[in-house]
C-alpha cells in the first residue's frame, strides 16, 4: 500500500516527501478536529472505573 502511494505521487524524492508531510498534517488535523471529538461523544468515558481489590 505504501509503495503504491509512493509511486502515484509526482515529482522527485524531495517533493514526494514534502507532499507526504502535507498529507499527514492534513490527516492529523482532520482527526483531531472532527473524528476524535465525535468518537469521544459516542464513548461514555464517565463510566470508567479503576478496580480496587
Computed Rg: 19 Å
What is the 3D form?
elongated
How much is the average pLDDT?
A: 88
Contiguous uncertain segments of 5+ residues: none
Specify the structural class: mainly alpha
Give the helix tally: 2
Largest sheet: none
Terminal CA distance reads 46 Å
Order of helices and strands: HH
Helix content: 55-70%
- Number of extended strands: 0
Percent of residues in beta strands? Answer: under 5%
Summarize the helices and strands and which ones pair or pack.
Blueprint: H1 2-8, H2 13-42
Name a few traits of the molecule:
single chain; 53 residues; mainly alpha; 2 helices; elongated
Structure, described:
- The chain has a domain at 2-34.
- The protein has two helices and no strands.
- It starts with a helix and ends in an 11-residue tail after the last helix.
- It has 53 residues and is mainly alpha-helical.
- It is 70% helix and 0% strand.
- It has helices spanning 2-8, 13-42.
- The protein is elongated.
Question: Short description, anyone?
Answer:
The chain is an all-alpha fold and 53 residues long.
